[in-house]
Amino acid sequence: MHWLRLQIVISVGLSCVGGVSFWAQSAGEINGDPVVYMFIGGELIVAQGKGYFPVSTMSKRHIFVDQGTGTKKVSKNSSMLLKLQSTVSSSLVEISNLDMAYSSTLPSRIEAQAISDMLRHQMGTEQEIAILEKLRIGGGRTRLNYDVIEEMKRETQEYQEGLRDHSKLASDDAEDKFDTLHLQFDLLPEEDYNDAYIAVAVSFELSRQSGSKSGSQVVAEYIGKLQAGRVETVKFRRSLKTFFERGSKCEIFLFHGEGEQIATNLSRRLQPLDSEQYQVLLEKIGGS
């Protein structure tokens, strides 16, 4: 398996929505402990058919989406996206010991396919030779053209050598391609949370030529219960689209319960607010 270990870059190629004009006026030194944390979060949305539905909650095996008329259970592997938005959280979860790596299953899949093709071709040739050797006409054994049999064997050998060469070229071509995400980190919450889960947005290049074609993918994973002051280690692996490692970036979003967002030390534009600043923020939102 082909591996690549990356340094985490806190960025993602997604558009930010929602008003954030209050940022500059709300930022600054706080007086006392923070009441809330303001940050750029993301609403997790699942694509189902021709519609897009917000995630209402998540379990170990499924995602539950709000369809307006009711809740529907869908696969964790469903197509997802994140709608970025400014929001607030009553507490902070610290993410530490973050370790992310990409690996590729492409070389092993290419090799397995080549072996399968060679065995299938060899089996077909052996069956044809066996039929020739057993063929009888009028009760007497047919005089075989051994040159034909030898030619079939040579063609089989040449075919197998060609497959091996093609497999090697394909494996070399896949050297800088990846299709699997490996993620591990520790969470340290300030308060208790039930049914916590994360969404990871990954942006990447789809072509060897930098900037020519880019893509992104969002994956989610259930965590469960988080206890205040207790470290929880999260580790998971998820398949992605095939991509090139150049310029790959990621961003982690944390949720709990019914889609409520939680601020982390890695959240974009993280800003602690004291009670006075929070009141100013509420007044600005109410007056907008």
Task: Give a structural overview.
The two termini are 54 Å apart. Strand 2 (36-48) and strand 3 (51-58) form a beta hairpin. With 288 residues, this protein is α+β, with helices and mostly antiparallel strands. The protein has helices at 23-26, 106-134, 146-173, 275-287; strands at 2-6, 36-48, 51-58, 62-66, 71-75, 80-89, 92-104, 136-137, 140-141, 177-189, 193-205, 214-226, 232-256, 260-264, 268-273. The longest helix is centred in the middle third of the chain and has 29 residues, at 106-134. Helix 2 (106-134) runs antiparallel to helix 3 (146-173). It is elongated and about 95 Å long. The protein folds into 2 domains: 2-102 and 176-287, no CATH class; 106-173, no CATH class. 22% of the residues are buried. The strands form 3 sheets. Strands 1, 7, 10, 11, 12, 13 and 14 form a 7-stranded mixed sheet that branches. Strands 2, 3, 4, 5, 6 and 15 form a 6-stranded antiparallel sheet that branches. The protein has a two-stranded antiparallel ribbon with strand order 8-9. The chain is 26% helix and 48% strand.
Order of helices and strands: EHEEEEEEHEEHEEEEEEH
SS field, number of helical segments: 4
Helix content: 25-40%
Report Rg. 28 Å
- What's the shape? elongated
Tell me, rounded to a whole number, the average pLDDT: 74
Based on secondary structure, the structural category is alpha+beta
Separation, N- and C-terminal Cα atoms:
54 Å
Strand-residue fraction? over 45%
Count of beta strands: 15
What ranges have pLDDT less than 50 throughout 5 or more consecutive residues? 1-28, 136-141
Can you tell me the number of structural domains? 2
Main sheet specs: 7 strands, mixed
